[in-house]
Amino acid sequence: MIRVEGLSVRLGQAQVVDGLDFAVSAGESLALWGQNGAGKTTVIRALLGLVPFSGQVVLAGHQMPGEGRAARAHVGYVPQQLAYYEDMSALGLLRYLAALRAAPHGEPQALLAQVGLADHSAKAVGALSGGMKQRLALAAALLGDPPILLLDEPTASLDAGARSELTALIAGLRAAGKTLLVTTHRLAEVSALADRVLVMEGGRVRASCGAQELEAVLGLPARLHLRASGDMNQAVALLRAEGFTAQVNGRGLQVEAVPGRRAAPVVLLLAAGFAVDDIQIEEGP
Questions:
Q1: What's the burial of 242, exposed, middle or buried (CB within 10 Å: 0-12/13-18/19+)?
Q2: Which are the contacts of 64, defined by CB distance < 8 A and separation ≥ 6?
């Protein structure tokens, strides 16, 4: 469904993407994971024909940029930065975009219901919360029922609750058979959004792996902050006896997580009779 060979993008003097190769089969989901500046957004922009590139890009059988119009008819796009008419209603905006895409007349209302915005259809876009705007952007991307969705850091500016809601919607589209290409720098979201991952750094692919393997491949340090009931000193002793680095932290515990075994300390504590009330994960050095 998506085929990219030798994709390179130079912006001014900077080589932003350098010889990228990947393919996404119909119904598959691929994540481009990397920190800011890795080249992820530029890849999406190249696939949409928004920046000049060298190499070969084929979307749904159509070559870019020569068959750009035909290719884009098969693609829905959720950008990182939204630029909508703030004074239009949510329904009015979708109806306007539906007319541009020649989508069926009833689609705007149905899509607002699908993304949980049916009760907010009359609200001005500018009055919607950040999470609602992103769900509206997803509804707009689904106009015309395109088989391919390109999602550029769709949850980047959202709070935890809104991130969870949008991630669930995207996971549902993945389960329904949409072909997804998603960029993200959030490790915790990858397994919900993708089957496979390309780890990007400096415009190149550093690693390729299954979504469930990403944590182990990266080997990123992480800390678990656990709020638990019971004797915290005994909990620390238990964890240290099993090889974990742990210490009492305020009213809870701080545990150094082992890549690929983040749940192990929680399982150990529960088996020993401790009640774990809350878990927070701090990623990075």
A1: exposed
A2: 47, 49, 57, 58, 71
pLDDT tens digits along 1-34: 999 999 999 999 999 999 999 999 999 999 999 9
Count of residues in the chain: 285
Report the CATH number of the 222-283 domain: 3.30.70
Write out the DSSP string of 159-219: -HHHHHHHHHHHHHHHHTT-EEEEEE--GGGHHHH-SEEEEEETTEEEEEEEGGGHHHHHT
Q: Which two tokens stand for residue 102?
A: 């020649």
Report field, pTM of the whole predicted structure over 0.70: yes
Which structure tokens are listed for 282? Answer: 């701090």
Tokens encoding 33: 């994971």
Q: Which fold has domain 2-218?
A: Rossmann fold (3.40.50)
What's the CA gap between 178 and 59, in Å, rounded? 14
How does pLDDT run across 95-111, given as a tens digit for each residue?
A: 999 999 999 989 999 99
Residues 6+ apart with CB under 8 A from 56: 3, 4, 5, 6, 7, 63
- The answer to whether the beta carbons of residues 214 and 199 sit under 8 Å apart is yes
**Residue ranges of domains in the chain:** 2-218, 222-283
